[in-house]
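We emphasize that the prediction below concerns an isolated chain of 267 residues; any contacts that depend on oligomerization or on bound cofactors are therefore not represented. The input was used exactly as deposited, without trimming of termini.
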Amino acid sequence: MSGDTGTVRIDCFPLDHYQRPGVYRRRVRIETRPGQARAELEDDPHRYGVTLQHHDRRVSAVEGRALRTPWSLCGEAVRMLDRLLGMPLSPDPQQVYRHSDGRAQCTHLVDLAGLALAHAARGIARRQYDIDVPCLDPASERQANLRVDGQLFLRWTLQQTRIVAPQAHAGQDLGSMMPWAKAQITDPDEFEAVIVLRRAVFTAGNRFYQMDRMSRASDTGHVVGACYVFQHGVADRALRRIGSTLDFSAGPDALLSDLEQAPAAPG
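Result of the prediction step, given as a token string:
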């Protein structure tokens, strides 16, 4: 805590305590049909969605939805998705970061756009990822699990940010593994799973903090230009949305439950 302002300063990965012990959960659902791809995400601090239209294998329209956000200005990043207009479909979900500066985007929205783009390119009609990351004892090994359409697909045993198992990924650190993954992982499903699980493990770090103690995004100490809301000139204006962080430790059933609600009957 800084002595002059009373604001709470946090680092990216202190890994020394949990303010909210429990299980971090995230669900991502991607659906495609001719000319369109839609991706939806929900976890403790976020509820986002992206819909892409494409024509002649290029993005022709993009719509972002910031439905539940940790900071008041996160929703402004929706308009930044327009920078993806015209880019070609690609089976690589990270291609969006080569077409547009990810630091000017909302990380989670642009990740969803990348998944939607990749699934449109690969012709995958529907896929759902479910991730759980126990956040209980930061000094101990923990297992981060990713399921694809209900089936366990990838499990990492982690010692802080280092992968201990499976053997194929052992020794890699989450902070620096992507060049290795791009060079070594040839199966597109495995590569995509690595991207999705890695992002979820990092986002699980939100459980280290009582975010409602912070009044602005700048209070986090993250004003390093990592994403839209942590840009200089934005973070100090982005107010905390008190009570926006939920807890799905008890189970994943409520994740993306708004998509399951039938439309109201007319009249």
